[in-house]
Specification:
The chain is an alpha/beta fold and 463 residues long. The protein folds into 3 domains: 6-144 and 267-329, FAD/NAD(P)-binding domain (3-Layer(bba) Sandwich); 154-264, FAD/NAD(P)-binding domain; 343-455, FAD/NAD-linked reductase, C-terminal dimerisation domain (Enolase-like, domain 1). Helices cover 31% and strands 24% of the residues. Strand 9 (195-199), helix 7 and strand 10 form a beta-alpha-beta unit. Helix 1 runs parallel beside helix 9 (314-329) and helix 3 crosses helix 6 (180-191). The radius of gyration is 24 Å and the shape is globular. The relative contact order is 0.12. Bound molecules: NADPH dihydro-nicotinamide-adenine-dinucleotide phosphate. NADPH dihydro-nicotinamide-adenine-dinucleotide phosphate (NDP) binds at residues 177-182, 184, 200-202, 207, 233, 263-266, 312-313, 343-346.
Length: 463
């Protein structure tokens, strides 16, 4: 039997890589993990975690305004961008330390270098030029924001990577895209006082979400003062004599701003990784092709998380890592379950969702009941803020199964997590109906919508 330097070598210290490396090491396997940037990966260093911290930061202006309706007088307030960036840096450095501590405690060898495949079972460490071997290799190198090379002037634009650490808070920003990142950052920048324009090629933002959520969020964002330009594209970006950026659009003329941010999707980090040397096949987007057990086309090489282009979400990468461990080290073949993934958009208001949108369900099922509630959240009565919460259940009329649950409103992400469990267990609308409400909450609406708002039969809305 061939002998290797390691049982497992993990390339990439993000969510999927760290979880697989830590669990394997804790089982007594000889594990090394290599990361070229910072441990924690996109999620911790320049994604989910700093994003959520910035969402909190961006909400205070509204909190101060709302306070008046509850009898408070809040004095003049100011915001210091540099202070926020520094506080964020401190927190992500702490988390980065925890990730490494977890690996070290489990007994994994932590390497701070870029690692590339150099052949079957062989990895090259770029800092030392050393080559090591491993029985199994996990590639969990994630992705990066699409640079949109076809756009003239794209080098003048920023992506979410830079947005977290801008030396100054811009006075104005144009954000291209209509997905998670574009929408979340439009709300963050607007909340911090930046004049914000969102430009999106489609008819309505957030193309993969339920129409009610999309329209409701669009209206709420515009009401706050975010300019949203749909069915339009940036054609070029240039710098004018004042140093401002000018984005020429197809339909809305020139948009001038301090920053232009591109949030047009993310690409897998497979360039230069030596995949050909090891016989690892990729698809047309450069994502690693895997089977149901995260096995690549090369024996002993596995791929997890965003680099595989399945579902680009942190918990999905972690789940895929745990399935890899079950399959390869616990003798329990487990393929990742990508069905009914609950997700949230940390827009303001948030969207929390799980399961099928009304349109998706209408394509698959003949007879649907749609339960929909739209109301003013309780806090808004005294704050005077005009805002709406929307809740929606998509139900199969034949067996009463809840196919989709969608919420636009405060803490929708928190609610989506619990709805995720509910739908995963295959709950019916009758289960919702016999559940006692928690009062007074917004989520009680979910169990008190007794009559369908309308039905969809063979794709046609009735009522
Ligand atoms: P998304 O895939 O969510 O959105 C990309 C957006 O860019 C879409 O609106 C898409 O339009 C548009 N687009 C793509 N190509 C072009 C083009 N050539 N010209 C104009 N528009 C274009 O990607 P993001 O970058 O927002 O985020 C990447 C991933 O990261 C997400 O898919 C998500 O899985 C994950 N993420 C999750 C978060 C969360 O859980 N809260 C937060 C942030 C990111 P169209 O819709 O028409 O295709």
């Amino acid at each position: 039997m061939a002998s290797f330097d390691y049982d497992l070598f993990v390339i990439g210290g993000g969510s999927g890589g760290v979880r697989s490396g830590r669990l394997a090491a804790a089982m007594g396997k000889k594990v090394a993990i290599a990361e070229e940037f910072r441990y924690g990966g996109t999620c911790v260093i320049r994604g989910c975690v700093p994003k959520k911290l910035y969402v909190y930061a961006s909400q205070f202006a509204e909190h101060f305004e709302d306070a008046e309706g509850f009898g408070w007088t809040v004095g003049e307030s100011t915001f210091d961008w540099k202070k926020l960036v520094a506080a964020k840096d401190k927190e992500i450095t702490r988390l980065e330390g925890l990730y490494q501590k977890g690996l070290a405690n489990a007994g994994a060898e932590i390497l701070h270098t870029r690692a590339e495949l150099a052949g079957p079972n062989t990895i090259k460490l770029l800092d030392s030029g050393k080559t090591v071997t491993a029985e199994r290799i996990v590639i969990a190198v994630g992705g990066h924001p699409s640079a949109h090379d076809a756009l003239p002037g794209n080098e003048l634009c920023i992506s979410s990577n830079e947005a977290f650490d801008l030396p100054e808070l811009p006075k104005s920003i144009v954000i291209a895209g209509g997905g998670y990142i574009a929408v979340e950052f439009a709300n963050i920048f607007h909340g911090l006082g930046v004049e914000t324009t969102l430009i999106y090629r489609g008819k309505e933002i957030l193309s993969r979400f339920d129409q009610d959520m999309r329209r409701g969020l669009h209206a709420a964002m515009e009401q706050k003062g975010i300019r949203i330009l749909c069915e339009d594209l940036i054609q070029s970006v240039s710098k004018n004599v004042d140093g401002k950026l000018v984005a020429e659009t197809m339909k809305h003329g020139a948009l001038t701003a301090d920053q232009v941010m591109l949030a047009l999707g993310r690409m897998p980090n497979t360039k230069g990784l030596g995949l050909e040397a090891a016989g690892v096949a990729v698809n047309e987007r450069g994502a690693i092709i895997i089977d149901a057990f995260s096995r690549t086309s090369a024996p002993g090489v596995y791929a997890l998380g965003d680099v595989t282009d399945r579902v680009q979400l942190t918990p999905v990468a972690i789940h895929e890592a745990m399935c890899f461990i079950e399959t390869e080290y616990k003798g329990n073949p487990t393929s990742p379950d990508h069905d009914l993934i609950a997700t949230a958009v940390f827009s303001q208001p948030e969207i929390g969702t799980v399961g099928l949108s009304e349109d998706e369900a209408a394509k698959k099922f003949e007879d649907l009941e749609i339960y929909r509630a739209e109301f003013r959240p309780m806090k808004a009565t005294l704050s005077g803020r005009s805002e709406k919460t929307i809740m929606k259940l998509v139900v199969n009329a034949v067996d009463r199964k809840v196919l989709g649950a969608h919420i636009l409103g405060h803490e929708a992400g928190e609610m989506a997590q619990l709805l995720g469990i509910t739908l995963k267990t295959g709950c019916t609308k009758d289960d919702f109906d016999r559940t006692m409400a928690v009062h007074p909450t917004a989520s009680e609406e979910l169990v008190t919508m007794y009559n369908p708002s309308y039905r969809i039969k063979n794709g046609e809305r009735i009522g």
